[in-house]
Amino acid sequence: MSDEARTLSVSQFLDIVKGVLSQAFEGGLWIQGEIEGFNGRGKHTYFTIVERESGKKAAVSIAIFEYQMRHIKPLLTKHRLELADGIKVRLYGTPDIYVDRGSFSFKVTNIDPRFTLGDLAGQRDEIVQRLKTRGLYQANKLVPLPVAPLRIALITSIGSAAHADALHELEASGIGFEVIVHDVRVQGAEAVPTVVAAIEQAGARTDIDVVMLVRGGGSKTDLLAFDSEEIAAAIGMCPLPVFTGIGH
């Protein structure tokens, strides 16, 4: 290589790359992927969207600045959505290079809620079909209800509004219900395993007549755990009648 070959400083190189990106994607573009590493605790929102295919993974860092989130948040609220890990999103924005760190990211200016809603609906349909194949989709409806179902296993988050509402309604009925509460997580990574375990534990008891699974309102993504195949299958296999009040 010639000693006279052009040599760039770091800032010059990054400025050229930044300019090429700006010119190549002038006006912006849509990209889609699954959220991972969501962080919305500060003024700005950061996460990664990933694509997994044939054992390979591709990832892009995402930034949504506060002033852009003021436009995006109402769109999410309108469709009862929240950004969270595991949610698939379609985002509009522009790629950018942060010169001081030499890092690449995608700056978001808009979101397509219909894409996320469609993906969630598609996942739910697939789960329903698998439950039907396994004979579990309406299996619990065939479980006979005791003549006097007074002993209730209440599966909920202790201290929540749903917990208080359920107890209030049972007490207001004037019927002498005996309630055994199973405390579970109703959101986040622990929701599915704790709910499944509670259903299985309640079903194994001989001093319970029926099971009640209740959780208060929230966004579609807040309630996502209750669309899981694991919880639905646990209900389908439960030997006791299961009544649910989700997002009431």
Task: Indicate the topology.
Blueprint: H1 10-24, E1 29-39, E2 45-53, E3 56-64, H2 66-78, E4 88-98, E5 103-111, H3 113-133, E6 151-156, H4 161-172, E7 178-183, H5 191-203, E8 210-215, H6 229-237, E9 242-246
Parallel strand pairs: 3-5, 6-7, 6-8, 8-9
Antiparallel strand pairs: 1-2, 1-4, 2-3, 4-5
Write a brief structural summary.
This protein is an alpha/beta fold and 248 residues long. It has six helices and nine strands.
Can you offer a commentary on this structure?
The chain is of the alpha/beta class and 248 residues long. The protein folds into two domains: 10-113, OB fold (Dihydrolipoamide Acetyltransferase, E2P); 141-246, Rossmann fold, CATH 3.40.50. Helices cover 33% and strands 29% of the residues. It has helices at 10-24, 66-78, 113-133, 161-172, 191-203, 229-237; strands at residues 29-39, 45-53, 56-64, 88-98, 103-111, 151-156, 178-183, 210-215, 242-246. A five-stranded mixed barrel has the order 1-2-3-5-4. Strands 7-6-8-9 form a four-stranded parallel beta sheet, with helices on both faces. A hairpin with a 4-residue loop joins strand 4 (88-98) and strand 5 (103-111). The radius of gyration is 25 Å and the shape is elongated. The termini are far apart.
- Please state the second-level CATH architecture of the largest domain: 3-Layer(aba) Sandwich
Detail the poorly predicted runs.
none
Q: How many domain regions?
A: 2
Helix content: 25-40%
Global morphology: elongated
Contiguous helical run count: 6
Strand order of the largest sheet: 1-2-3-5-4
Level-1 CATH class name of the largest domain: Alpha Beta
